C-alpha cells in the first residue's frame, strides 16, 4: 500500500480538487511505465484468478484493460480479465465508449466479437445497449489508477465511470481494480465521485473496503 501524505496545493493545504488528482495520476502512470513484462504477466494471471473467484453470478460488467492497466492483454488469453469474467458469469457486459456522457454496454460473445473502439479500448461489435443496462449487473469491475481505504476511486479524469456507476443497482458489487501498490490511505474526493465497496488487487484478490 502506498503511504504518506496526500498531495497538497501550493500553499500546503490538502488538495481535494482537480489539481490534487492530477498529481496522483502523474505519479501512478509514471510508476506503471516502469513495470517489466514479467511483472505485468504475473499480475494479470493473479487478477484473472481473482476475477474468476467472484462467480458464479448472472451478469458481470467488466472492461478490456488498456496496455498500461493491470490485467492488460488480449481478450483471447485465458489470463485476461474478459476471459476470466466469462468463467465467473453467465453473461458478460463490456463498455462502449460514446463521445461524452455515461458508458453504453454490449454483450461479450467471445474474442472474435470485439473491435478497437474509442481511445483504443476493445469493445464488442454487437448491439449497443443503453447505460441503464448496468442495472442488470451483479458485479461491476471498474478500472482505476488508485483507490483509497474509503472506496474513493481515482480514474483518468474523463468522468465516464462517475456518470455511469449511478446506473448500478444498490446491491451490486462495485469493484475497483488496481495494483497492490495503488491502494492508498486517502485520495482527493469530489462531490460527484461514486465510491466502490470492494478492491481487487493481484496480491489480495477481492477485499471489502474497510469503511
UniProtKB/TrEMBL annotation:
Query: What GO molecular-function term can you cite, just one?
Result: 5-formyltetrahydrofolate cyclo-ligase activity
Q: What reaction is this protein's catalytic activity?
A: (6S)-5-formyl-5,6,7,8-tetrahydrofolate + ATP = (6R)-5,10-methenyltetrahydrofolate + ADP + phosphate
- Coiled-coil regions listed in the entry: none
The entry marks the following residues as binding substrate, namely 69
The keyword Ion transport belongs to this UniProt entry's keyword annotation = no
The cofactor required is: Mg(2+)
Q: Where is this region: Disordered?
A: 1-25
Sorted keywords for this record are: ATP-binding, Ligase, Magnesium, Metal-binding, Nucleotide-binding
GO BP annotations, alphabetical order? folic acid-containing compound biosynthetic process; tetrahydrofolate interconversion
The record's annotation in InterPro entries points to:
FTHF_cligase, FTHF_cligase-like_sf, NagB/RpiA_transferase-like
User: Could you say which EC number(s) this protein's record lists?
Assistant: 6.3.3.2
In which residues is ATP bound? 21-25, 153-161
Q: Which family does it belong to?
A: Belongs to the 5-formyltetrahydrofolate cyclo-ligase family.
Protein name, as recorded: 5-formyltetrahydrofolate cyclo-ligase
Protein's organism: Rhodococcus rhodnii
Lineage from the top down? Bacteria, Bacillati, Actinomycetota, Actinomycetes, Mycobacteriales
